[in-house]
Write a structure and sequence with these properties.
globular, two-stranded antiparallel sheet
């Protein structure tokens, strides 16, 4: 398991609560920011870090990127 800081854990838990567990169920940084009650800019930075660590996947779309949790074996 990857070491996560408290903010990364909070974002990951919010994504689980929102059901962002597959490409079809991806959520935006806005969705996650509303769920965590944190600024979108802060959430965006955490999402970049989680993507870099291989915990979540970022899907670039025309309007807003979507994110979902990568299932781990």
């Amino acid at each position: 398991m990857v070491d996560l800081n408290p903010m990364e854990s909070l974002v990951l838990q919010a994504m689980k609560d929102l059901g962002a567990t597959s490409d079809e169920k991806k959520k935006t940084a806005d969705d996650i920011a509303k769920k965590t009650n944190r600024p979108k800019s802060m959430i965006s930075n955490v999402l970049v870090e989680l993507d870099r660590k291989g915990v979540i996947k970022r899907v670039v779309r025309e309007k807003a990127s979507g994110y979902y949790i990568i299932p781990h074996q």
